[in-house]
Write a structure and sequence with these properties.
The structure holds 2 protein chains of 2 kinds. Chain A is of the alpha+beta class. Chain A contains 1 helix and 10 strands, in the order αββββββββββ. Chain A has a 7-stranded mixed beta sheet with strand order 6-5-9-10-2-3-8, with no helix packed on it. In chain A, strands 1-4-7 form a 3-stranded antiparallel beta sheet, with no helix packed on it. Chain A starts with a helix and ends with a strand. Chain B has 24 helices and 2 strands. A two-stranded antiparallel sheet of chain B has the order 1-2. Classes of the chains: A alpha+beta, B mainly alpha.
């Protein structure tokens, strides 16, 4: 009988109690996972270059990709819950990709951006060089600090 | 005196046997639920799910018409919406009806307990139940205790990481749809387990049951509110009922037939045309096998079928004024809009008989019994002719080798597919890439002709095999003219047939011998593939940093390799190859699919918040890839 209680009823009771206390009591939420007031010191580790390239897709996708590098930053002096916002734009190609990550602790944070795919034929950019911009910001309800704002060149091969 | 063994009141309850067959069937169900819950994202993967979700919100509020549109404000962004008399109606009403109780439940409980917490608690209880059940199956109380501790720990962790945003920003209708789909998908595993259990040993049955969710694309679509997992489970239920109808007693034969036809009736309320095809396949088998059935048996089966199709008939009557006027044949409300094109093409839009038209809905004419009767006959003739044309068109597709190659063997970049819909990402996998365990079916002709002195038993082909093969073949044929197509991902139009294919694979003699004699080898190979393969994928992903299409194609290449290895291993048993090798590659092939399911849901396709915060933690622990 004791094994039935240990392996059956007790966990049921325990789980129901936890859910009831936490849920009804409104005690849920040990971590803040929403943007709030705050600030942080951010040093951009990558990307460092000012050239982006369109490359052939791998694993027989046949698509070509404008590879957008991940943002890598070292974060220190964190207060509150700000976020790091990463944006890459290439107006002539109609590209505007952005992503953000909440800053919850000091250390290294990586913010990826999805690569831009192009078909092997048809709707592709004309070969040549294009101007783009990389923008990195630390944002919160009380802050909007530009950490990096620089131009990049995108090369589209023949 | 030795005390009697401790017994729970459930030991003596018939509910276990009726619903799950036995405790292993319950384990299959629970594993399916727990796995799918980890991959569950509360959001929309395909745009026409918004139509079904809006419909669910409206039906839960008491209206067959789409009057609430919490998920999409514009008509053009809801593919599949039809318009009748100024009102909008949706599709898949049967799926919606099944979901409504859960929608009400989430609505009612949301004000008391946040849905996120509810789901976390439910998952934890599932872990407890699995541990307890597995402990009884294997006779190890420590398993029960471990499951209990794991379940409570999971609750504590979930509560600890629960965010202050503890309510999903999606109303209850989507949650209800998704949880219904999840439960139906998991139930499909149990149905397959019970079906195989009637013909094979426990190990084969269990492998098939677990494999239904873990090793087929069912695991991908299990929580995405499309009709495909419903159809997959119902097709297996048809087979189970038919298998049951082969029993000795009159009563069980009738019950089995009733289950089979009842499943088709339920399917009809989800997709009437798919149900019509399944009906057309079942009837010849039923007639051939049950020639001696009594009139009473036929009447009972007919009554069950009528009850099962009643939701369809009532819905059609309420919407179109015609019990046979299914919503899918009604005017498309999005036609001419600048909204998103309907990517979820269904058979009826391929085109019925040229020059003919569906008997007019609500047509005027002389009042009398002859007019409706003639209308009914005309409708049935139209349906029959449409079905014949669809099968003929499917057979004609067999003369398109390039399309067949891309559909079944290798995807890559497929000419003619509208990749623009998915941002030019090559995310469409072939059958063997997404479902490598299907590969042994191509060895079946070789096995049929093989010397029976080989190391497997004589192949006892059962009539249920014929039914399963027939349904699978018709399903594939009907959709073949449309394939390959965009937004299929894992050939989703054919996903319903994949449960049947897995059943047929598990019936092949080398497979049954391998699973019966070398189950540990299969299990070990599966575990190593998932764990070690997962680590390799993570390392490779970080170093390669693939785009979405590249990652999916990499999975495809791995799946295709596993499929090839499986087919070769099975075929080689005709010339002295070992069944232990078959057991190993089965585990690898299954593991490859599980890896794809986990990778796609936790890593590559993060399109919405996770239902479980545990899953979110897992996903956030993986290195980001672009």
């Amino acid at each position: 009988m004791r094994s039935v209680w240990l392996s059956g009823y007790a966990p049921l009771v325990a789980t129901a109690l936890i859910i009831s206390i936490v849920g009804i009591g409104g005690l849920a939420g040990a971590q803040h996972a929403q943007l709030d007031d705050g600030n942080a010191t951010v040093d951009v580790v990558a990307p460092t270059g000012d050239q982006l390239a369109v490359e052939s897709g791998r694993f027989t996708t046949a698509a070509d990709y404008l590879r957008l590098p991940d943002l890598v930053v070292d974060v220190s002096s964190v207060s509150g819950t700000p976020r790091i916002h990463y944006r890459q734009t290439v107006p002539e190609l109609g590209i505007d990709r952005q992503n953000a990550r909440l800053i919850r602790r000091e250390g290294r944070i990586r913010v990826p951006l999805a690569d831009v795919a192009y078909p092997p034929t048809g709707e592709r950019p004309e070969p040549g060089e294009y101007d783009g911009r990389v923008l990195v910001r630390v944002q919160s309800f009380s802050t909007d600090t530009v950490v990096a704002n620089r131009s990049v060149r995108i090369g589209v091969p023949e | 005196m030795t005390p009697p063994p401790v017994r729970s009141r459930f030991d003596d309850s018939r509910w276990l046997a009726v619903v799950f067959g036995d405790r292993i069937g319950l384990c299959v169900f629970l594993v399916g639920v727990l796995f799918l819950a980890l991959t569950w994202r509360v959001g929309f993967f395909i745009v026409d799910s918004r139509t079904v979700a809006n419909l669910a919100a409206s039906v839960a509020g008491g209206s067959l018409a789409v009057v609430d549109m919490p998920y999409s404000l514009t008509v053009g962004a809801q593919p599949g919406l039809v318009e009748v008399g100024g009102n909008y109606f949706g599709r898949n009403y049967g799926q919606v009806y099944l979901s409504v109780p859960f929608v009400w439940g989430f609505d009612a409980l949301e004000s008391v307990v946040p849905a996120r917490l509810l789901l976390a608690g439910g998952w934890s209880l599932g872990v407890v139940a699995l541990g307890r059940t597995a402990g009884r199956v294997f006779g190890r109380p420590t398993l029960s205790l471990a499951g209990s501790l794991a379940g409570v720990a999971a609750t504590a962790i979930a509560v600890g990481v629960l965010t202050p945003v503890d309510r999903f920003d999606q109303p209850a209708a989507l949650l209800g749809l998704q949880v219904t789909s999840l439960l139906v998908a998991a139930a499909g595993g149990t149905v397959l387990y019970r079906l195989l259990g009637r013909l094979e040993g426990t190990r084969v049955a269990a492998a098939g049951g677990f494999g239904f969710v873990l090793a087929t694309p069912i695991g991908f679509w299990g929580t995405i509110p499309k009709r495909h997992v419903f159809t997959a489970t119902l097709l297996l239920l048809v087979c189970l009922g038919f298998a049951h109808s082969r029993d000795a007693t009159d009563r069980t034969r009738t019950v089995g037939r009733a289950v089979a036809y009842g499943a088709i009736g339920l399917l009809a309320s989800i997709h009437a045309f798919e149900a019509a095809f399944v009906f057309a396949v079942l009837v010849p088998f039923d007639v051939a096998v049950h020639r001696q059935a009594t009139l009473r048996s036929h009447a009972l089966v007919g009554a069950v079928f009528l009850v099962a199709v009643t939701p369809l008939l009532v819905t059609n009557l309420a919407i179109a004024g015609d019990p046979l006027g299914v919503p899918r044949t009604l005017p498309d409300a999005t036609a001419g809009s600048t909204g998103i094109p309907n990517a979820d093409v269904t058979p009826e839009t391929v085109g019925g008989p040229a020059g003919d038209s569906t008997p007019a809905v609500g047509a005027d004419g002389p009042v009398g019994i002859l007019e409706p009767l003639m209308g009914l006959v005309a409708t049935l003739l139209w349906i029959a002719r449409y079905m014949l044309d669809a099968v003929v068109a499917g057979l004609a597709t067999l003369q398109r080798p390039q399309a067949l190659f891309h559909t079944f063997v290798r995807s890559g970049w497929i000419p003619g597919v509208r990749y623009a819909v998915n941002g030019w990402e090559a995310v469409e996998l072939s059958m063997f890439e997404a479902f490598p365990l299907a590969a042994p079916v191509i060895s079946a002709p070789l096995l049929l002709g093989a010397d029976r002195r080989n190391q497997w038993r004589e192949w006892d082909v059962h009539v249920v095999d014929g039914l399963a093969a027939g349904m699978a073949a018709v399903f594939v044929l009907v959709y073949l003219p449309r394939l390959p197509l965009h937004s299929m991902i894992t050939l989703r139009y054919v996903v319903p047939a994949m449960g049947l294919v897995l059943y047929l694979v598990c019936r092949l003699p080398p497979i049954t011998v391998a699973l019966s004699s070398h189950a540990r080898t299969t299990g070990l190979a599966y575990a190593v593939t998932v764990v070690a393969g997962g680590l390799v994928f993570v390392v490779a992903g970080v170093s390669i940093d693939p785009a979405t299409g590249e990652a999916i194609q990499l999975h495809g290449l791995v799946g295709l390799s596993a499929a090839l290895a499986t087919a070769i291993a099975v075929a080689s048993t005709t010339v002295g190859g070992t069944v232990r090798a078959v057991a190993a590659v089965l585990g690898i092939a299954g593991g490859a699919t599980t890896l794809f399911l986990l990778s796609a849901s936790l890593w590559q396709l993060q399109y919405a918040p996770y239902a479980l915060d545990l899953a979110r933690l897992l996903a956030e622990s993986l290195p980001p890839i672009g």
